[in-house]
Amino acid sequence: MTFQLSKAEARKLLLGCTGLEQYREWKSGSAANLLRHQRTIQLDPLDPMGTNVDLVGLARLNGLKRGELLPSLYDAGGFEHYAKERCIIAGELFSTYCEYLRRSPDFRTTARMKRVPKAVLDSLCEEVQTKGPTRISKLSDHGSVPPIDWSGWKSTSKLTSMAVELLVRQCRLVVCGREGREKVVGTPKDVLGERAEQPAERPFEEAMLLERVRCAGLLSLRSSAAWSTLRKVRRSGVVEQLIESGELRRGSIEGTRGDVLVLAETLQSHFATDDHLRILGPLDAFLWQRDLVQDLFGFHYRWEVYTPPAKRKFGWYVMPLLHCGALVGRLSGRVEGETLHIDGLWQESGAALDLDALDEALGAHADACGASHFIRPDRVETNDG
Q1: Which of 71, 226, 265, 281 is the most exposed place for a label (fewest CB within 10 A)?
Q2: Residue-wise pLDDT tens digits, 3-16
Q3: Where are the extended beta strands (E) located within the chain?
Q4: pTM for the whole thing?
């Protein structure tokens, strides 16, 4: 049985499923609840006004401070791996990843495996098991190897660091924290306890597709970044199997191209949107499907961090503004000392950008980043598309 949603219904569903419909208080257990709901939060080290993890949290949790969320997500049982690029993932999926990697041991590891001797991998595992969770720089130095070049991006030349990354990808070690930007790794048993030894409940492809739909809310069958690492699944029969089992539903959105997938129970959900203005991280799950966002909200978004400066329209780290269920503008900024500087501010053509609501959000964001005040342009530019 298929379904059809109006654009208004789809907007509410997308906001609700990605946790952007209601602002919640940051308190004990909030990180665990957020990870239980979001399932997958993309990691990125860039930090002009908070990292992407910070921005995901600040858009949903009142009282959260910059830098607080990621350690709490590790404490809540999150582990790092590749879902949609590098993410922190709910710990319940660890056994599913392990099962998949046992069947496909070269998953994103082939180039590293050619450079890292098995003896080094085994030695580092034994060392971490003996020491307990340890910073990578505190592990034994095994010398250097030629770096790997992936289309111009070069890996580390430190053999220990390359070996640890390989062990994390293989689920033999788990990232359990960071000190500054340095990772702390431990054994799965030390970090995840019983979850490290629980058998996978279902095949990786099924589990990952269900998780991706749960995280995205509405997953368009059109090609997009939301299908990253799952492109083979998209072309396989797994989609049809889960539709036939009743776990997924396939349908359409009025006035848009292509079908979408939702969890069956999602269609029974009802969400009410609050009036809190939110600054969205560029890698928020809400923005993974840029074409769908444009179809539903009339908002074209491109993260310009990889765009040559001369070709940028807005800024290298521009962030959308969400207010009362609409994408009303975007801004770029940075924190320097006691000041949150807003370098650029744009209102969407035809949208109502409430400057009082914006100033309230900027004041709260400045406080969350340890700044005492903010400065924004008096003039608001209009984005005419």
Answers
A1: 265
A2: 999 999 999 999 99
A3: 3-5, 24-25, 40-42, 61-62, 79-83, 85-89, 134-135, 149-150, 153-154, 174-179, 182-186, 219-220, 248-253, 259-263, 278-279, 319-323, 326-336, 339-348, 373-375, 381-383
A4: 0.93
